[in-house]
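Open question from group meeting: does this chain pack into something compact, or does most of it stay loose? Before anyone orders reagents, we agreed to write out a predicted structure and look at it together. Recording both the input and the output here so the notebook holds the full record.
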Amino acid sequence: MRPGNTVNAAPNAAVVDLAAAVAIAAAAEAGRAIQAGLGGALDVRPKGGSGDLVTVLDLRSEAVIVDRLRAAFPDHRILAEESGLLDGADEAWCWVVDPLDGTNNIAVGLPVYSIGIALCHYGVPVFGVVHEPTTGCTWSARRGYGATGPKGPLHQPQTPPPTAGPTLAWLQGYPVARTDPTARALRLTLESGARRLIQLWSPLLCWIMLSRGDIDGFVGYRAGVVDLPAGSLIARESGIAVTGFDGEPLDDRIDPSGQEVSFLAARPDVLSDLTLLVKSAADVTVTGLGG
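Structure tokens returned:
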């Protein structure tokens, strides 16, 4: 995702139709593999020095998904969280796979995690699916055709903006240091202005909560690219607005070479207040906290 104008290339409808069926089935199969593996010993290993983790469940889920995508679309590129960029002959199409969003939750025994798969056409997400293995629920969206969940189409509730302050979700990327002054200022500002600030450790589920109307806004600071396209497409197709911190619309094109994205997302009647809240963080300095 990056500021700019969205590419208007029209993807082949038959490819997207097949992709939707394959991705939904792959996500469900990967979810069953994760659930089956939770009964055994869980080998948790650090991934880099940023505090991120990887388990055999991440690898097992990713293998299931990549195998299914490769079988159906051998020429497509795949950007997978654990494997990186897997090249393909057709550069028009790229899958983005988050095989287990919430590994840190699993590591401490919290049953809050999900799977995300998105298909991009020249970088633009055209289909996305999020699957929650613990409940077996699946949400999906096709660009321009709306978003769907277990109970049918997803739409933003026609209710007045919250008077006691919005309920917000917060995400910061793993490379963000504990001493990062921008992250500190943003968290403090959001906590002060919100009724509640949720830090779920599973960004895809935050996008789903936003899409369902369970929360009012979602703010991400230097988020990783793999976490974004499936959930953000579902949110956009449910009526959520996604912008940069400056309030300008955020182009959702994905760069497979990797990038960090800062964003805010909210129902339209909350967006202006959330934008002002985020902008006000620039005037906040947090001191007295060790590194």
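Observations to bring back to the group:
The two ends are 30 Å apart (CA to CA).
The CA atoms of residues 209 and 258 lie 26 Å apart.
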